[in-house]
């Protein structure tokens, strides 16, 4: 057995809200820790299912057989955290940076923010044309495992104003 020390750990203990707790839904996920609830989960899963036919093997760097293994993007039996994790991983593997993918999935409240920079608003407007927001109330912490910094590990605040978390270094 090899001895190893992880660079970072995301730990989450949960109570159930919109999915019943079970071992196959237990965290950790691959790139995130999630506390809260993704609203309208069924709608998010349906939108991702509708997009599966638009995915291009070449642009994702996958063979047709690898693409078949990828689908469905969201397993219908997964928890809201598992669904979010699957979509986030797809965005990252398709070439988005982890922070950019999280900004796409959990945008700041930007539409009526008069103090937000116009370039940032334009970015969120562009993202909104690509993907529906995965709104909470929820706290999402994420890491790519390679770099441990505030730029890679974050807990963005969602529209429900949920921002409770602890971080130890």
TrEMBL record:
Gene Ontology process terms (BP): glutamate biosynthetic process
Alphabetic keyword roster: 3Fe-4S, Amino-acid biosynthesis, Flavoprotein, FMN, Glutamate biosynthesis, Glutamine amidotransferase, Iron, Iron-sulfur, Metal-binding, Oxidoreductase
InterPro entries in alphabetical order: ET-N_metabolism_enzyme, GATase_2_dom, Ntn_hydrolases_N
Alphabetical list of Pfam families matching this protein: GATase_2
Cofactor section: [3Fe-4S] cluster; FMN
This protein's pathway: Nitrogen metabolism; Energy metabolism; nitrogen metabolism; Amino-acid biosynthesis; L-glutamate biosynthesis via GLT pathway; L-glutamate from 2-oxoglutarate and L-glutamine (ferredoxin route): step 1/1
Gene Ontology terms, MF aspect: 3 iron, 4 sulfur cluster binding; glutamate synthase (ferredoxin) activity; metal ion binding
SUPFAM superfamilies named among the record's database cross-references: N-terminal nucleophile aminohydrolases (Ntn hydrolases)
UniProt record similarity statement: Belongs to the glutamate synthase family.
UniProt name for this protein: glutamate synthase (ferredoxin)
Lineage start: Eukaryota, Viridiplantae, Streptophyta, Embryophyta, Tracheophyta
């Amino acid at each position: 057995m090899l001895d190893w020390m992880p660079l970072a750990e995301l730990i989450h203990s949960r109570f159930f809200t919109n999915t019943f707790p079970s071992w196959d839904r237990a965290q950790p996920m691959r790139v995130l820790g999630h506390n809260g609830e993704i609203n309208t989960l069924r709608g998010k899963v349906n939108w991702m299912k509708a997009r599966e036919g638009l995915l291009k093997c070449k642009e994702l760097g996958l063979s047709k057989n690898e693409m078949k293994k990828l689908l469905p993007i969201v397993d219908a039996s997964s928890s809201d955290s598992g669904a979010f994790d699957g979509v986030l991983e797809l965005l990252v593997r398709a070439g988005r940076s982890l922070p950019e993918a999280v900004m796409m999935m959990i945008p700041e409240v930007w539409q009526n923010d008069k103090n937000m920079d116009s370039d940032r608003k334009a970015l969120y407007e562009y993202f909104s044309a690509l993907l529906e927001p995965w709104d909470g109330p929820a706290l999402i912490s994420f890491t790519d495992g390679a770099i441990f910094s505030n730029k890679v590990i974050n807990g963005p605040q969602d529209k429900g104003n949920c921002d409770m978390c602890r971080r130890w270094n």
